[in-house]
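Quick one - inputs below.
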Amino acid sequence: MPTVHLLDYVAGNIRSLVNAIEKLGYQVEWIKSPEDVPKAEKLILPGVGHFGHCLSQLSQAGYLPAVQQHIAAGKPFFAVCVGLQALFQGSAEDPDVAGLGVIPSSLDRFSDADKPVPHIGWNSADTHGRAMYDLRAGSKYYYVHSYKCPYKPGELESQGWTVATGTYGNETFIGAIAKGNIYATQFHPEKSGVAGLRTLRAFLTGAGAKNLGAPLTQPAASSASKDGLTRRVIACLDVRTNDQGDLVVTKGDQYDVREKSDGNNVRNLGKPVEMAKRYYEDGADEVTFLNITSFRDCPLADLPMLEVLRQTSRTVFVPLTIGGGIRDTVDTDGTKVTALEIATMYFKSGADKVSVGSDAVIAAEEYYSLGRKLFGNTAIEQISRAYGNQAVVVSVDPKRVYVPKRDATRHALVETAAPGPKGEPYCWYACTIKGGRETRDIDVVELAQAVEAMGCGELLLNCIDKDGTNSGFDLELIAQVKAAVTIPVIASSGAGVPAHFDEVFRRTTTDAALGAGMFHRGEYTVKQVKEYLDEKGLVVRKFED
Ligand code: 1PR
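Output:
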């Protein structure tokens, strides 16, 4: 097997990149010290997290001159995400840290005045009619970042660079850039499905460098929604151990996962790894696992979910999120383990994002009780500091509390089109913990704003009242939360037919929509949902062979 070298500077989830490279028939060898760099023929610089963290790690370990020499020697070099950013002169993310300066420009932050930041999701890499590592105008690639190099037409091209761009809101940014032996993508090829594997292959085989910049005879028309991103459809798998000790995908009705008949068993809808693979092949834009009973009586290192992630990330090349049990805890042998350590185990096993549930509610309560001050010690702050905001999702489990009058509560109200059992015209959404079993005196707006302040990059917005009902998403809840934060929101709970996805994308500004039961029960496939959205004129990532 041909070999490719990967620079190991502790950059978060690089397992997926290794899996993608291996899938393409190459073997990965790790560069573990600067002295190893000259051995590399093809060198890959992965990147997750902060610009400053990446460069200071590289610098402290003495890698910078070795990487510069590799590039100057004309050997193939590929950089991903923050790896691409490291090639620039600097970034507004960490203004005191210098980049490698290979590309004479610098990065700034996306404006959140007109759109959610981070920029998360599937967007284009438009090569402006030039050949560039098999990037295709009709394909979509998975981006997740807050900082970007603004695109100034012709500027870098005049210095020999070939540039592919994406557009987010009214900002056009560099999605990929190449020159000579250098190729770098802001998006994650290892998370961009078939299109991502294709461009990675073009680097590995060397074919991409050969015809770089050649005019394309028939550039396909690029399609994008107004803000550039496609409508993201996520498949979610609630996973737990059943009474027989098997790890199964289950699904509740308003969080009750036990059958009403059939011995009151945990509903068993299939095997997590197989189902995730099927959803990927059906075109799911992301797969989320929620470990709904987290881990009980099991040493952390043996968590069955770690193996599920390892196996899934070998065949699923879209982002994987894992939730459940991300909190400071005590292992079965009495050792204290931090939420950050647990998250690290998940990232190393193939997760791209971790989702914090109950612990986020407790942290938000403390945040308000301490006068909205942050001390850097919550799980959300620690994980986002180490792995970047985009790696931290907060999963919210709200429940409607109906009230008869506007002044009946201090909480953020919605005047609802679905009044309560006594005809109450208003409701607020109370956050719950422990899988909905305990309701707290904090509303969903308070929670959303607190976790955004802590560095959470995305909200997974469930709704206990809607969960498993197949009656459509709670549009009022989604609109209320979207109006309260600038981070992206994933609408969840209640999807029963493809039209519900169309409805939530049209009637709210949600950034993504998630389905579970309708896919698990085989009523509809992810592909059918996306075809439906496409027919209705919404831009989706098309299925590619
Ligand atoms: O509190 O950090 O340990 O995390 C626990 C995680 O497990 C939370 O994310 C919480 O949402 C989840 N969870 C806990 N108990 C349940 C349960 O169902 N008994 N599942 C549960 C939450 C909700 C959704 C579901 C959608 C879509 N599941 O993820 O997939 O509602 O369903 P639908 O499309 O079929 O309506 P912690």
